[in-house]
Amino acid sequence: MSNFFDKTTNALQTSIGMRQVRQNVINSNIANAETPGYQAQKMDFEDALGRALDIDGLRHMSTSHGDHIVVGGATAAVRPDIYANPEGAINNDGNTVDLEKEMSALSENAIMYKAALQLINKKMAALKYAASEGR
Q1: How far apart are CA 15 and CA 9, in angstroms?
Q2: What backbone phi and psi angles, to 5 degrees, belong to 128?
Q3: For residues 40 and 84, is the Cβ–Cβ distance under 8 A?
Q4: Over its length of 135 residues, how does the chain's per-residue pLDDT go in tens digits?
Q5: Are 95 and 22 in contact (CB under 8 A)?
Q6: 56 near 112, Cβ under 8 Å?
Q7: C-alpha distance from residue 72 to each of 37, 53, 79, 111 (Å)
Q8: Domain spans, the chain
Q9: Burial of 129 (C-beta count, 10 Å sphere; 0-12/13-18/19+)
């Protein structure tokens, strides 16, 4: 059974999903920047993406026949770990949000999201060209 999209497209798709989760975490931190006692949340993007893509091959399942369905890898449903940021400095009201760091992370995440989206769009344009013009 062949997959229509290659590993790169699957990796970009997974990356976009993880970037959306990270965006939500950052937005939550920014929204609660002045909430007394709020503990800033953090997500390790690279670790979560690596587990979702199974980069180390720890969940790789082999097949004994070409007709068997391959499972794991980019199709594995991995949720990122979101936890209280241990690096946050505690303010007088108990809040640990560093607004400048959060705004910087927000900008970086948005740029990386757009880059992944542009790469997927280019791959889809190449497929469209091959299907219509590249006889």
Answers
A1: 10
A2: -65, -45
A3: yes
A4: 345 567 788 888 888 988 999 999 999 999 999 999 999 999 887 777 777 776 545 455 555 665 555 554 444 466 778 888 888 788 889 999 999 999 999 999 999 999 999 999 998 888 888 888 756
A5: no
A6: no
A7: 40, 8, 14, 29
A8: 7-132
A9: exposed
- Structure-token pair, residue 65: 């026949």
Q: Are 43 and 78 contacting, i.e. CB atoms less than 8 angstroms apart?
A: no
Judged by DSSP in three states, 83 sits in strand
| Termini Cα distance of the chain | 25
Token output for 35: 């909430």
- Per-residue buried b or exposed e for 50-86, using 16+ beta carbons within 10 Å of the residue's own CB: ebbbbeeeeeeeeeeeeeeeeeebbeeebebebeebe
